[in-house]
Amino acid sequence: MGRPRGSRERRALVRHLLGGLGYSATLLPWRSGGYYPAPAVYLVTVAVILILSRFTEISAVRRRMGLALSALATGLFLLSPAHSGAREMLNVAQLRDCLLTLPSDSVIGYDQPEGAIRLEQIVKFHDPAWHGTVARIGPGDP
User: Fold this and answer.
1) DSSP letter, residue 91
2) What's the N-to-C CA distance of the chain in angstroms?
3) Residue 27 CA, distance from chain mean position
4) Bridge partners of 107?
5) pLDDT tens-place string over residues 16-44
6) For residue 50, how far is the Cα from the chain centroid?
7) One-letter-per-residue 3-state SS of 27-85
8) Which of 11, 74, 95, 122, CA to CA, is 20 to 30 A from 66?
């Protein structure tokens, strides 16, 4: 069927597999989409390739099936971030348009630190005459 590879390949396989699973485990408590799981996908994919490469003879049918499944998985991994990115951009555009309807000197509270900065930049880029502020508010802030 095939010849087993040396211990170097075995260690690489274990490192990639454990690295991918460990990285995935660190993402579990967080909502992670887009490119965040990319390192885990890479590590596990390399581990799977190393597992499959342990066999020197792969039939043409299995090779085609492997390529088809890889193409399908790649398509799914590309569609998911594209969909969530489009949805997030729609939300940002709606927030921007909402803020632009407020008086120019408004102060708006936002609960995400990076989001507050970016939202203010986006609104001011869209309308330089807008002089409001998007401030980060945290738990317990008035």
Assistant:
1) H
2) 69
3) 10
4) 133
5) 888 888 888 887 777 666 667 778 878 88
6) 24
7) HCCCCCCCCCCHHHHHHHHHHHHHHHCCCCCCCHHHHHHHHHHHHHHHHHHHHHHHHHH
8) 11
Higher-confidence position of 122 and 71? 122
**Percent helix, strand and coil across the chain, each rounded to 5?**
65, 5, 30
In terms of Cα–Cα distance, which of 40, 66, 42 is closest to 53? 66
Query: Cα separation of 91 and 75, whole Å?
Result: 24
Helix (H) or strand (E) holding 134: strand 133-136
Please give the distance of CA 136 from its chain centroid, rounded to a whole number.
Answer: 24
